[in-house]
Every structure is written in structure tokens, then in C-alpha cells.
Specification:
alpha+beta; four-stranded antiparallel beta sheet; 16 helices; about 65% helix; extended; binds adenosine-3',5'-cyclic-monophosphate
Amino acid sequence: MTDEAPTLRKQVYTVLRYSDPSLAGRHWRAVHLLVLGIGLMAVILLSMDELSPPYPTILRQVIWVVTVIFLLEYLVRLWAAPETPRFAHHSSLRARLNWALSVEGLIGVLAIVPAIMLAGGYVITGADTASVFCILWIMKFGVHAPAFSTLARVISNERAPIASILILFVIVLMLAATAAHMLERVSQPQQFGSLPNAMWWAVVTLTTTGYGDVVPVTAGGRIIGSLLMIAGITVLALMTGVLATGFAQEERRREYLRVWDQVARVPIFAALGIVTLSEIVGKLRTRYYPARVTIVRRGDPGDSMFFISSGEVEVRLPTGSSVRLTDGAFFGEMALLERQPRSASVATTKPTTLLVLYASDFYEIASHIPALAEAVEIEARRRREENLGRQAAETKR
Ligand code: CMP
């Protein structure tokens, strides 16, 4: 083995990661989505029996190309699997086996099953076969959804309230089905004669679907039906509330961890004690910007200040000159301190990660932590004097 092999493998692994923020990673994901979209479109069109030649042949060729791309992708991912951090202590073979058996690996296999079927002489003939392709490929969309892991965490965190709501759902369902069965079975033996039949009506009503294929006709049955519809809305609202709060809490927790990682790179926070720091971390937000994006425009009202965790920005001063700020520096403080519009425009010169502090949080922190406020004020004063000096030099010329 040469020394370069692991390096190349690591690079390939990094770019193929679905969360890779680099340009190459984003380009790869865009191409992958495009190929997936073209493949699915070809499968959907091929299921139409009224297609006249030569379109079916062209579509089959498109499907072939997409399948081969997925096969290559699978092989490359399998090769790069030992770079996965969670398999770091495994041998290469073990890591590849683990990856192949992971959800991502299995979805990868499912996406190339059509290739194997085609190679084995199985020909795409009609709508049925085409729809099987479609189902297998659509699963690859799932790996592009970063919120899937968050959803799993939310369901796990909120399992107690979710279970309670589901139990409530079953209790209401059974009570309503039994009541409707007793009230309606004489007038509609076909629809309400047995509990399973009455339960079908109860599920359709409780979920507020209401096909209208089974409808209570007695006064008592209609009262039960009305109550059931109201209960259905309540149960759905409860579930929505639990999931929405769970998502918000999970996102806040993740953001807190992201900020902890970044905050250590900003010297102004380094001297603070752990308690003070944790208070500030709760108020900061991370923002990723590509190169050449304007973050602050001169003359705009100031509603936040920024700390550079990594990257570089250029401050374009009104005099025409510019100043570059890099890792650990901050900007946007002057508008907050002086309650004036932005004194300069600030834009990124390369991909940059910033920590944002909103004005209301800035004023609150400034009142709690005078040392921090003072450090920011001293730098703002220095910048103001520097700008006045530059302005004076400019007018003299
Ligand atoms: P603000 O006025 O809110 O928005 C523009 C920001 O540019 C300003 O806050 C400062 O943070 C920053 N800035 C202005 N002048 C200078 C300077 N001379 N050196 C570094 N940064 C500056």
C-alpha cells in the first residue's frame, strides 16, 4: 500500500458524505439528485403503455445509464467505507461489511438490484416491472434528507407523549366503534354488523378522512360520529404539537453543540468562565457563508453582531479602503453600541463560519458581563478613531 491511497480514500469519503459543506460535496449531491430525478422520470414515462417507438428504447437506455452510475457509486462508497468514523476501530473488511449492512448500504444495493436483474436477462417489459424500479430508486431520496436522523431522535425523545397519544387514539377508536356497532347494527347490518366493520368506519372518521362509504343513519350513531370527528382533530393537534416542540428542542440542542465547538476559536470568549460561557453559547447562532457574500450593508439598521469562527471577511469602508478580519475577530458591534446604521459594508472573501449575536441578546449580555462589553467597546472606539483618521487623510489629499 502506498501512502497516498488512504489520503485519496479519505478525500473521496469526505466529498461523498451527505453533510459535506464543501463545493465539491455540494456539486456531487446536485449531480446525484439530477441523475436520480432523470432515472425516476424515465421509469415513470416507461410505465405508459401508449408510448410509441423509439421512446421506450431511449428510456430503457437512460435507465441503464442511471443504474450503472448507481452501481459505480455503490462500489466507491464500499471502497471508502473504512473512513467512516464509527468504523475507525474495525478492519477494512469489517468496516465494509458493516457499511453494506447499514441502512445506507442496503438502500444502495436496492438501487442496483435492477442492474443485477437486467444483467441476469430480466427485461423491462411493462408497467409492473417499471414501478418496482421506481420504488427502489425513490428510497435513495431518503439519504438526501438530513432531517431523517433528527426525526428519529425526536420520536425517541418524545416516545412517552407519542405513546400516550396513540393509546388515546386506540381507546377513542374502540369506544366509538363499539358504540356505533350497538347503535347501527340493526339498521345497517352490512356496515356495522361486526366490530371490525365498525372499526373501519371509526378509523376513517377519527383520522378526519371521511370517505363517506359508511355513514351512521341513527340519531345516536350521528352523535357518536360528530364526537369522533372532534376527537380526531384533537388527537391530530396533540400529535402535531408534540412533534413540533420535539423538533424545536432537538434543533436547539444541536445548535448549542455546534456553537460550543466554534466558540473556543474566538479569543474574546476564551477568558470567560464556564458558567458565563454557557450563557452566551445559548444565545449565539452559527451561520455558514460561501465566499463573496455581503453580510452587512452600509446604512442598514444593525440588528446583530458577528464573531468569525473561521474564514475571512472584508470591511469596505466609506473612504474606499478596506480592512480584512479573520478567525477570532468580530464585527457589526458599532451599530449596536452607537445605535446608528451600519458604518461599512462587510462581505466574505472565502467560505466563512460566523457566530451571530442578536441585538437584544447583546444588550442583555453586555449588562451581565461588563468585561466582555468593555472589550467590544474598546475595539469599537479604536476602529472609529482609525476611520476618522483615514477620513481626515482622505480629505487632506
Ligand atoms: P457596524 O457599523 O455595525 O457595521 C460595519 C462594521 O464594520 C462595523 O460595525 C465594524 O464592526 C466594522 N468596522 C468598521 N470600521 C472598521 C475598521 N476600521 N476596522 C475593522 N472593522 C471595522
